[in-house]
Amino acid sequence: MSSTGTTGNYDADALGWFGGPGAFGGRFMPEALIAALDELDVAWQQAMADPAFTGEFERLLHEYAGVPSMVYDATRLSEHAGARILLKREDLNHTGAHKIRNVLGQALLTKRMGKKRVIAETGAGQHGVASATAAAYLGLDCTVYMGEVDTERQALNVARMQLLGAEVIPVKSGSRTLKDAINEALRDWVASVDETAYLFGTAAGPHPFPSLVLSFVRGIGDEARQQCLDQYGALPDAVAACVGGGSNAIGLFAGFVDDPDVAIYGFEAGGDGVETGRHAATIFAGSIGVLHGARTFVLQDEDGQTVESHSISAGLDYPGVGPQHSALSAAGRATYLPVTDTEAMDAMALLARTEGIIPAIESAHAVAGALRVAKERPGQTILVNLSGRGDKDMGTAMEWFHLGEAGEQQ
Amino acid sequence: MSATSNTGIAFEKARAEGRATLVGYLPAGFPDVEGSIAALKVMVESGCDVIEIGLPYSDPVMDGPSIQAAAQQALDAGVRTTDVLRVVEAVAATGTPTLVMTYWNPVEKYGVERFAQDLANAGGAGLITPDLTPDFAPEWIAAADARDLDKVFLVAPSSTDERIAMTTAACRGFVYATGIMGVTGTKQTTAEGVAPLIARTRAMSPTGGTALPVGVGVGVSTGVQAADLAAYADGVIVGTAFVRTLLDHPGDRSAGLAALAALTEELAGGVRA
Q1: Burial of A127 by CB count in 10 Å (0-12 exposed, 13-18 middle, 19+ buried)?
Q2: Chain A partners of B183 at a C-beta cutoff of 8 Å?
Q3: Model pTM greater than 0.90?
């Protein structure tokens, strides 16, 4: 992985457009931030061409974060599914999710650029914890913006960030979730850009973030592709990942987009069901607009006002999506479908009881989606990105399944 | 551009009087649609030379807490893009050049051509676009040029000379210089702080004909500041201070309007000092 995030025919052009000029992506940002985005773009491209940087990144991933994560043949789940399910175990990475890859890359880049402070937004808190971790490890100051609603449902992650030395600022504007945390981080950045780097948490936002984030997470797919070949002698028939902003998904998909025989599925948060309007199925049910600096699918009303998203999973509760996913959808290369809260929670329990693995609720959406794909592809092999572990979600699980009182659980 | 910009004419008139232009901002639909029309008319009567009407948006990344709160209040009350155009029509009818300040997505969703046409029909002068830069604005530039609408893009202290040249070449009406690195209503712009940006903007503006006026906004709230800035800039742009004045008088509309008139007069005195 020494390139700057190439995905063959699905790369961004020099202005950050995916799928052709004006289609998806670009850079819809205040002029005050353009110089910083240009500076970041140049520094990132130089870093990715410098073996000293990429070597240090690889070393940190391996020695500190436990990468490459394993690909694991989930035989008991497969029996249940009627197809062979392989799991890419990103939940076993340090901090418990794929997010550590992105933040280590961006934090190393921050050091290289001579900046001393990082800011980040977080939804579920996974990116915030990963950012606080990387900042602690590399000696950077860290401020994390988190929607007030999310600080309540992910209190454990707030405590983690604080223990790691980060300042967590609850965001009280708008819907008080991830989108508002991004707004607030951007407002901080406009005022602090000289000394501060914005560690963007997903493969969305203005150019170069979608391509930059991809370059740091594409190891997921590159590793998994090679692991499938080495361990099983063949590529999977399909790959599946959950999609909020879409960084774990694009990281997985990048390894397979140029393999035309591998089907690609992204599973969005269907919340209470797309028909109820309470969901976060941005590509499936949204329309094309501009949000957080990129043209992409957005949940919006007739006037272009962002509509609040809903999901039991804070990490998928976002009304936008990375522009490369929009382009992959428009090109017909990947299929994006919703998975409801109920389906995801059922999959969480099923994976726990068949494999002894408690997934993050985000990742449970991918498992649930794969179970549906398995019905259409009996006997085939489906690789699922198990992007995070479920420890942080035990509060939600206890409430959902009525757990915690001995003798009374279902 | 063929016809002369009415906004440009307002700047020329002020320049001929040896003073700076006062540009006043308020979101449409705040405190409600009729209330915003009344407030903007007070600002016109009390000395604003150019009016900037904010289109309330759910994700205003360049705005601080006051304008966010005002926009949210408008949205919560159900204000629509068509209501914004109605406010534009009412204010433009006073003869004062009236621009819309809007984040890009609502225009894109409305349809760029349709928005430009309806804005022109309402008598609107053009758009100020805080999250749309000329290099990503070909559709808007074409739609505006076809109707002689103003295109006000922003320059910032962090802008390179090359970007200032590119931006000023694309502007019509004036160029909006952000006085500070930050969002609206959070820090104070100082004349010394913004002077280098103004000087660079003038130096990089296309020459020939009337030079493009430079308006300074973000972080300007008092008559004293307006007076200081008027020595450097062609225009002084005030937003948050007007919004705060109305937020400070939630229950008493006539007191709010009186305070708004007093603030406008203070600022109008400032640009003439």
Answers
A1: buried
A2: 187, 190-191
A3: yes
Q: Looking at the partner chain, which of B65, B72, B105 has a beta carbon nearest the beta carbon of A291? A: B105
B89/chain A closest Cα distance in angstroms: 19
Instruction: Give the tokens for residue B133.
Output: 């830069």
Q: How far apart are CA A387 and CA B180, in angstroms?
A: 41
| Alpha-carbon radius of gyration of chain A | 19
Name A18's bridge partners.
Answer: A24
- Give me the pLDDT at residue A1, please: 35
Tell which A residues from 22 to 81 touch B, by Cβ distance under 8 Å: 22, 26-36
Name the residue in chain A with its Cα closest to that of B161. Answer: A35
Confirm whether B262 is domain-assigned.
no
- C-alpha A211/C-alpha A6 separation (Å) is 8
- Catalytic, A99? Answer yes
Q: Which residue of A has its CA nearest to B59?
A: A183
How far does the CA of residue B48 sit from the closest CA of chain A (Å)? Answer: 25
Contacts of B186 in chain A (CB under 8 A): 191
Summarised one tens digit per residue, pLDDT across range B136-178 is: 999 999 999 999 999 999 999 999 999 999 999 999 999 999 9
Does residue B74 lie within any of the structural domains?
yes
Q: Are residues A305 and A343 in the same domain?
A: yes
Phi, psi of A84 (to 5 degrees): -85, 120
Same-domain status, A370 and A312: yes
User: Residue for token digits 């329309």?
Assistant: A287
Measure CB to CB from residue A193 to each of B106, B181, B187 and give the nearest one.
Answer: B181
What is the CATH classification number for the domain harbouring B81?
A: 3.20.20.70
Cα B258 from Cα B255, distance rounded (Å):
5
Is position A282 within any domain? yes
Alpha-helical runs (H) found in A113-218 = 126-138, 148-153, 155-163, 178-192, 209-217
Q: Which of A115, A326, A387, A392 is catalytic?
A: A387
- ipTM beyond cut 0.85: yes
Characterize the bridge pairing of strands A278-280 and A263-273: antiparallel
Q: What whole-number distance in Å separates Cα of residue A359 and Cα of residue B34? A: 53
Classify residue A122: in a domain, yes or no: yes
In a domain, residue B257? The reply is no
Same-domain status, A50 and A174: yes
